[in-house]
């Protein structure tokens, strides 16, 4: 599960890619497609993602990878109603947590039989 609390001030592109199970090229592409995603770059051009950038990546990831939006559709959805995107993502993650808890409980009950 992707965290929603970020412990570091900056993440490099490799760390972000690993957290979200993406290629670094996908992140660079998203930067071009979503103006909201603009990580800082140092003098050598190394990207440094802030916690705010990580939240933008999380929202884009939710739309594209979890909900199946195209890039164009995700960009439109993100621009027109970002609060709905956040609420839907939170609901999906809560439901997945409940599902996992139910599956764990079922396994425990099955082992008692």
What would your notes on this structure say?
The structure is a single chain. With 113 residues, this protein is mostly helical. The chain has a single domain (11-112), classed as Multidrug-efflux Transporter Regulator, Chain: A, Domain 2 (Orthogonal Bundle), CATH 1.10.1660. Helices cover 66% and strands 6% of the residues. The protein has 5 helices and 3 strands; from the N terminus they run βααββααα. A 3-stranded antiparallel beta sheet has the order 1-3-2.
Bulk shape: globular
| Total of DSSP H or I helical runs spanning 4+ residues | 5
Strand order of the largest sheet: 1-3-2
| Strand-residue proportion | 5-15%
H/E series: EHHEEHHH
Query: What is the oligomer described by this structure?
Result: single chain
CATH class identity: Mainly Alpha
> How many domains would you count in the coordinates?
1
Class derived from helix and strand content? mainly alpha
What is the mean predicted local confidence, pLDDT?
87
CA radius of gyration: 17 Å
Summarize the structure.
The chain has 5 helices and 3 strands, in the order E-H-H-E-E-H-H-H. The chain is mainly alpha-helical and 113 residues long. The chain has a single domain (11-112), classed as Orthogonal Bundle (Multidrug-efflux Transporter Regulator, Chain: A, Domain 2).
How are the SSEs ordered, and which strands pair?
Layout: E1 11-12, H1 13-20, H2 24-33, E2 40-41, E3 47-49, H3 51-66, H4 71-80, H5 82-112
Antiparallel strand pairs: 1-3, 2-3
Helix pairs in contact: 3-4
């Amino acid at each position: 599960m992707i965290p929603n609390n970020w412990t570091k001030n900056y993440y490099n592109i490799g760390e972000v890619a690993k957290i979200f199970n993406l290629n670094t090229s996908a992140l660079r592409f998203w930067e071009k497609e979503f103006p909201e995603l603009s990580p800082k770059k140092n003098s050598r051009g190394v990207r440094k993602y802030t916690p705010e950038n990580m939240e933008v990546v999380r929202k884009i990831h939710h739309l594209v990878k979890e909900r199946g939006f195209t890039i164009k559709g995700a960009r439109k959805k993100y621009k027109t109603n970002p609060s709905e995107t956040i609420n839907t993502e939170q609901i999906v993650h809560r439901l997945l947590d409940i599902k996992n808890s139910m599956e764990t409980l079922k396994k425990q009950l099955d082992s008692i039989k």
